[in-house]
Amino acid sequence: MSKRTFVYGATILLGANLINRLLGFAYQYLIMINIGGEAYGLFNMVFPMYMLALVITTAGIPLAIAKMVSEEVSLGRLSNAQSIFRLSFWLLSISGAIVSIALYFLSPYIAHRVFSDPRVINVFLICTPAIFIVSVSSVFRGYFQGLQNMIPTAISQICEQIIRVGVGYTIALRLLDKGVEWAAAGLALGMLAGEFVGLMAIMLQYHRTKPKILNEITAKAYSSRQILSRLWQLASPVTAGRLLATGLSSLDAILIPLRLQVAGYSAREAVTLFGQLGGSAFTLLTFPSVFTFALATSLVPAISEAAAKRQLNVVRARSAEAIRLTVLLGIPCLIILFYFSRPLTAFFKSEDIAPILRVLALGGIFSYIQQTTTGILQGLGKVHLPVLHSIIAAIIRIPVLIYLTGLPQWGLRGTAWAFTLGFFIMAVLNLMAISRYTGMPLDLQRFVLQPLFGGVGMLIVFQFLDPIFNRHIIGYLGEFIIGIALYSIILLLNGGVTLADLRRLPWIGKFLPP
Predict the structure, then answer these.
(1) Residue 475 shares a structural domain with residue 424
(2) Does the pLDDT of residue 369 top 70, yes or no?
(3) From CA 489, how far away is CA 495, in angstroms rounded?
(4) Which of 117, 177, 374, 399 has the smallest number of CB atoms closer than 10 Å to its CB?
(5) In a domain, 65, yes or no
(6) pLDDT recorded at residue 300
């Protein structure tokens, strides 16, 4: 029953994430076309600092709530689950309020001393109350995750994204006449409104289910000290990893515009380029990760279960399958991003960013492998290794980024190469660790050669079809479909995909012969 619940919950979240990603993709398009990269760049400069504040405030507690509530519910101790929720609610409400108020009053100092462009002040002021809202919302999401009920979180996320897109775009467009900095503030208002509506949606669902839970309470609750101790024990390792990731994002948001100015760009040009990097290049690069994330989510519990039973053969087989499927899904997406970089970036009115997307596409496969292998290591219980590997990659990446981005002949292209290097280092370190702890062989034929043959076939067909198809959206979609079809046929012929793989697919597998 638990496995069925997990699969059902993962499917619900995958659907919600896919809808949110499509809405976000449309949002980025509208911003880049009608509002511009400079406004998005100003908003994006603040966002990593906002995320850093959130990590400090929540400190990995939502994941700890989910684990603790799940344990108590499985043992029938529903009163303890309620006690965990109540204490966590007050804890994160207080910490969220303190951090929000402190940052609000410190925002003029932070805007002038930390950020390279003081125009971000209004964006930062608007983001500060969102810290309190998200902190409270994360308690409810952790609680429902512990109950293995993903529907409230999915509904909350979709409501949040719809409001964010509608309100953010409308207000930003209306404020654009007052200046780019006011348009950026409009984007921040959209985010704030979305977070508020998302919180209201999940609170409403909690109050609908709360009476059913309270009627079943029979056991005595834990003491506050016991709950706090357990929360800290579970949350502290998660916090370290998230602090590192958000800290690096904040550092990138500060360094890249500054180094672009050293390369000869004006402050406004640097902010615009940084906005195009995030709003166009990284939006396109990370879109396929919604599929690789779903893959990692579904396979990691299976790996964790096999590792707990010391079934190393199963661990090796499932790890290899996760990596192979990540490469099989990632390569066609990245070939499309590489070959069609110019029309895809033109879609966002960011044609100048096309060479940057090409460089990122070269390293994109390592980004996807990094995501899957991090999940595998977490399934094996080696949660500290991805954090260590991130530190090693950052130690090498950041000096390269600082040096190359500041060179006039490199600029943002140097930034892209630095990110590609970072993806490569972390993916390789993760793969080496998995091989070391599980004995999984690195099968170059299945991991690299077979997918690459399919990728070469895609490139050839694109080269042949490009002069034939007219350069409009229908023509491009036709090329994508034919290219992916040829990629699939080549994989079937060279053994990259087998009938056994296809039989595992829902709706398709039942029609195939045994």
Answers:
(1) no
(2) yes
(3) 10
(4) 177
(5) yes
(6) 45
d(CA 153, CA 201) in angstroms, rounded, equals 9
How far is residue 325 from each of residues 1, 215, 332, 365, 382, measured CA to CA in Å?
A: 26, 46, 12, 12, 22
Angle (CA) 125-126-130 rounded to 5° is 115
Same domain assignment for residues 114 and 159: yes
Q: To which residue do tokens 């958000």 refer?
A: 246
* Model pLDDT for residues 391-402, shown as the tens digit of each residue: 999 999 999 999
Rounded to an integer, the average pLDDT of 101-108 is 86
pLDDT score at 301: 44
Same domain, 224 and 87: yes
Among the listed residues 127, 178, 113, 414, the one whose alpha carbon sits nearest the alpha carbon of residue 273: 414
Residues 6+ apart with CB under 8 A from 261: 116, 267, 270
Q: Which residues contact 227 (CB under 8 A, 6 or more apart)?
A: 68, 83, 84, 87, 88
Diameter of the chain measured on Cα atoms: 73
Based on the domain organization, do 353 and 209 belong to the same domain?
no
Distinct helix (H) and strand (E) counts, the chain: 20, 0
Instruction: Give the model confidence (pLDDT) of 236-262 as tens digits.
Output: 776 777 778 777 887 888 899 999 999
Q: At how many degrees (to 10) do helices 224-262 and 78-113 cross? A: 30
Range of the domain at 194: 1-242
The pTM of this model reads 0.69
